Amino acid sequence: MSDEEEYGVYSETRQRRIRVVAWVVIVSLILVGGGATVFALLFG
After folding, report:
1. Pairwise CA distance, residues 2 & 9, whole Å
2. Sign of CA dihedral 10, 12, 13, 16
3. Is 2 helix (H, G, I), strand (E, B) or coil?
4. TM segments (predicted)?
5. pLDDT computed for residue 23 by the predictor
């Protein structure tokens, strides 16, 4: 395997990991933000 092929594999894996982490962060921010809004409305 040449260096370029190895970097291609690492690049795909890295991009997939970055995408998954980004979605997890987005979803958690929405959930936490939504939860904070609900608590603010209930205990406001």
Report:
1. 11
2. positive
3. coil
4. 20-43
5. 94
